[in-house]
From TrEMBL, chain A:
Sequence segments annotated as region (Disordered): 1-43
Domain Protein HGH1 C-terminal: 337-390
A UniProt-annotated Pfam family: DUF383
Domain Protein HGH1 N-terminal: 220-331
Polar residues: compositionally biased ranges: 10-29
Sequence ranges of Low complexity compositional bias: 33-43
Residue intervals passing through the bilayer: none
InterPro entries assigned: Hgh1 (IPR039717), Protein_HGH1_C (IPR007206), Protein_HGH1_N (IPR007205)
Protein name according to UniProt: Protein HGH1 homolog
UniProtKB/TrEMBL annotation, chain B:
Protein name: Cns1/TTC4 wheel domain-containing protein
Chain ranges of the Cns1/TTC4 wheel domain: 257-358
Pfam families xref list: Wheel
Organism: Allacma fusca
Residues annotated as transmembrane: none
A biological process from GO: protein folding
One of the record's GO molecular function terms: Hsp70 protein binding
InterPro entries noted in UniProt: Csn1/TTC4_wheel, TPR_rpt
Lineage: Eukaryota, Metazoa, Ecdysozoa, Arthropoda, Hexapoda
This protein's UniProt keywords: Repeat, TPR repeat
GO cellular component terms, A-Z: cytosol; nucleus
Length: 422, 378
């Protein structure tokens, strides 16, 4: 009994909701490193004749600008006027040079297929494209400039086609890091949510349509993992998400996908279990989070027919050749999510009834790290006890948990501690 | 007055242009007139059969509505469409479908085509031609990807045909693009959910049967190895082949300790009777098993009580010579099976013959045996 109390007061469910950058190193901004000259803004030479300027010269200018943006790590260094000027400059290049290039890229699967020769009005150069997006990426890494970018609707719209249009797939490696940077700080996330909430759905749609060989999944899943550290994002995702959208994102937990992608998706799953209000809903068929969590944790062991009968159908009769998730951080995130799901009584009962215990028992034999073994034991402990043993207060929360609709409709305000809510 | 004047003028004009018609009228007999009248739709007693030339008046009416030369494409399209809807309301699905098919020849607009395909799909659905209906729905969606009704019907067809993967694929393709009401969206989601559920269930069943099959194959291997290890001669190694009709009573089993349990047939050749010992442990003797067989449950045909343990002998057939080979009652099954003359039959069920000493029929059979005239078929 004492252990349960300890678990509750340490607020595990809520530490997850901390801003990503503190506990998740890879969510820091992507910066386009540039070894060229370290010039100040005045010498970058912002002028209006971008349309006619030679591609090489423009590209050099942009490289310098990117380098400058990379150096200045604190946004306070920029004056407002400089920022405004930069936004206009970037917008101009976007519409006059880069958008025309988009036509050449449509339909190509990767960069090698793009025909970069020939005239597109003014000659556009690969270097120019690189440099341009380097500027945008570094621009997005600073809070103030990023917010300014998000508030200029037209520029954002133009950039969106390079982020979300699958036809421009070949450009994703250049353009998506900037999107990723928009999600790394809480201030940026809040503005993004306010100004462009549909971005979430657009990202999910691409992840849905992607395949395991798509490298652009790394920035996209990182984006999702970062964004879901904000409670409002989680609420919106559940509200706007269609049936099975979780499964579509979490297909990336399959071993076919690269490790970084799996890692980010596991964080996504962990974050989504931060709100107790949503737990019951997450366990329902339309979201179906339980087999999503358990499948990577299951090895190829066979159980008896009656043990399989109440298990989720995705976990039944797995091939003996099935391997467990090899990365321990991914496993840890998934286990943590499962632990969260056992906080509320009816959710715990559902997890118990699904015979997840058997999967965990086998996992326990497999784990060697003490921290992991400990985590598994904590979950198993909650599952093997009956509700009578756990005690009267079955729900390990301080407040009365309402039905999900109330929260999704905005009628319920989460009793909050500090950090990320506005 | 005006009307009559116009009629007269028209008549005059007609008579001028078609003198042969005038002549016909003047020379027709009563019978000919009657015949012509009876062909008028008003007086027809039955519909003209297919293939028969139509009476000219009927043909004229037909031309009026359906002729390509006299009607524009738009008119024809409308005509066929209305006909289709008319017959649909009367639940004449085939006729309705035919009308829509005709209409499709004249439809040019994507939207019109989509509608017609959808309508025809509805007819097919009512006729329970779910495959054809599905194809038409897919065509409708190709021409109009916002068509919610077509998507719902397509998904329903897939559901009826249990084509879960196709349903999921269609849903992925069109669910976002269709313009659906809340109820329609709910319906689409419901069908999708059902398909996901079913396809997952089928996948699990497949995994299960693969696993079961694998376990059975492994078990079979073990048995064959065990039989070989004991030096038992086999007619064919395939005696374990899975036969759907064969019940589990007739298959040899292996215990976890590696002991074999055989189903054994006991023949009483003088009466062509037989018994089956379902589980004869290889370590058990014939004495033990036959005591149980004959004395615990005495056979009904043994009125003279000859078949008692002290009075019987056990034999098996040497398949090479046809002779009987005697087996001592105290022999264990496994030792009998590995006898150098014993061959395990094709069906994997060992058979032994039990005779009563002193029984005249048994004596006769045995004596025939010595003459090598009698061959047992197993």
């Amino acid at each position: 009994m004492q252990d349960e109390r300890k678990g509750r007061t340490s607020n595990e469910g809520n530490t997850v909701a901390q801003p990503a950058s503190k506990e998740l190193p890879t969510s820091t901004d992507v910066r386009m490193k540039n070894s060229s000259n370290k010039t100040s803004s005045s010498t970058v030479g912002i002028d209006a004749s971008i349309a006619t300027e030679n591609a090489v010269a423009l590209s050099d200018k942009l490289k310098a600008l990117a380098g400058y943006l990379d150096l200045t790590s604190e946004n306070e260094n920029f004056e407002d006027a400089v920022l405004d000027g930069l936004i206009i400059y970037i917008s101009n290049i976007m519409t006059q040079r880069i958008e025309k290039f988009a036509g050449k890229v449509i339909g190509k699967k990767n960069w090698d297929e793009v025909d970069i020769t020939g005239d597109v009005g003014t000659d556009v150069d690969v270097e120019l494209l690189h440099s341009f997006f380097a500027v945008v990426t570094n621009f997005c890494s600073h809070n103030r400039s990023a917010i300014l970018l998000m508030k200029s609707k037209e520029l954002f719209q133009s950039l969106s086609q390079f982020w979300f249009d699958l036809k421009n797939k070949a450009l994703f490696p250049f353009s998506l890091p900037s999107l990723q940077n928009l999600s790394t700080e809480v201030e940026k996330r809040d503005v993004l949510l306010q100004e462009h909430p549909s971005v979430l759905i657009d990202v999910i749609q691409i992840v849905k349509d992607s395949t395991e060989i798509d490298t652009f999944l790394v920035p996209l899943t990182t984006f999702l993992a970062n964004m879901t550290t904000t409670r409002e994002v989680r609420r919106l995702l559940l509200k706007a998400g269609e049936n099975g959208v979780f499964e579509d994102i979490c297909k990336c937990l399959d071993p076919m996908y690269p490790k970084d992608v799996r890692l980010m998706v596991s964080r996504f799953v962990k974050h989504m279990t931060a709100d107790e209000v949503s737990h019951w809903y997450l366990l329902q068929e339309s979201v179906n989070i339980l087999p999503i969590i358990l499948l990577p944790l299951a090895g190829g062991e066979t159980f008896a027919d009656d043990e399989y009968s109440t298990m989720p159908v995705e976990l039944q009769y797995l091939e003996p050749t099935k391997t467990r998730e090899e990365d321990s951080e991914v496993r840890e995130n998934l286990l943590f999510a499962l632990l969260q799901l056992c906080r509320l009584k009816r959710c715990r009962e559902k997890v118990r009834d699904s015979n997840s215990y058997y999967i965990l028992r086998e996992l326990h034999k497999f784990e060697t790290q003490e921290s992991m073994i400990d985590l598994v034991e904590r979950i198993v402990d909650l599952l093997i006890r009956t509700e009578e043993e756990i005690g009267e207060k079955g729900d390990f929360v301080d407040f009365q948990v309402p039905e999900i609709e109330q929260w999704l409709n905005g009628d319920f305000v989460y009793p909050e501690e500090p950090s990320n809510m506005k | 007055m005006q009307l009559i004047f116009q009629q007269n003028e028209a008549k005059a004009k007609f008579e001028k242009e078609h003198p042969e018609a005038v002549k016909k009228r003047q020379t027709q007999t009563y019978e000919e007139v009657e015949k012509e009248l009876m062909e008028h739709p008003f007086f027809l007693k039955e519909l003209p059969k297919e293939g028969d030339p139509l009476p000219p008046l009927l043909e004229a009416f037909q031309q009026l509505k359906y002729s390509e030369t006299d009607n524009s494409a738009a008119d024809l399209l409308e005509n066929y469409k209305q006909d289709g809807l008319f017959h649909f309301k009367l639940k004449k699905w085939r006729t309705s479908a035919m009308c829509f098919t005709e209409g499709l020849k004249y439809a040019e607009d994507s939207w019109e085509k989509a509608k017609l395909y959808n309508n025809r799909a509805a007819c097919q659905f009512h006729l329970e031609n779910f495959g054809s209906s599905l194809r038409d729905c897919e065509k409708a969606l190709q021409y109009d990807k916002t068509y919610a009704k077509a998507l719902i019907r397509a998904l329903s067809c897939c559901s009826k045909l249990s084509k879960w993967d196709q349903l999921i694929k269609l849903h992925k393709q069109y669910a976002r693009s269709v313009e659906a009401t809340k109820e329609q969206k709910a319906e689409i989601d419901k069908l999708h959910m059902q398909a996901v559920r079913n396809s997952k269930f089928e996948a699990a069943q497949l995994r299960k049967s693969t696993l079961v099959q694998k376990l059975q194959d492994e078990n079979d291997e073990k048995i064959i190895k065990a039989v070989e290890a004991r030096g038992i001669r086999m007619k064919s190694k395939k005696f374990l082949r899975r036969d759907r009709e064969a019940s589990s009573d007739h298959r040899v089993q292996i215990t976890t300790d590696g002991e074999l349990i055989w189903p054994v047939l006991i023949f009483y050749p003088h009466l062509a009777e037989s018994d089956l010992i379902k589980e004869f442990y290889e370590g058990a003797t014939f004495q033990e098993e036959l005591v149980e067989l004959l004395e615990m449950n005495p056979p009904a045909w043994d009125s003279d009580k000859e078949f008692v343990i002290d009075n019987i002998s056990v034999y098996f057939t040497d398949l090479d010579t046809g002779n009987y080979v005697k087996v001592d009652l105290l022999t264990k099954l496994k030792d009998a099976l590995k006898h150098k003359k014993y061959i395990l039959p094709e069906n994997g069920v060992p058979a032994f013959f039990v005779m009563a000493n002193g029984n005249p029929m048994c004596e006769m059979i045995l004596s025939r045996m010595e003459d090598k005239q009698f061959e047992w078929k197993q």
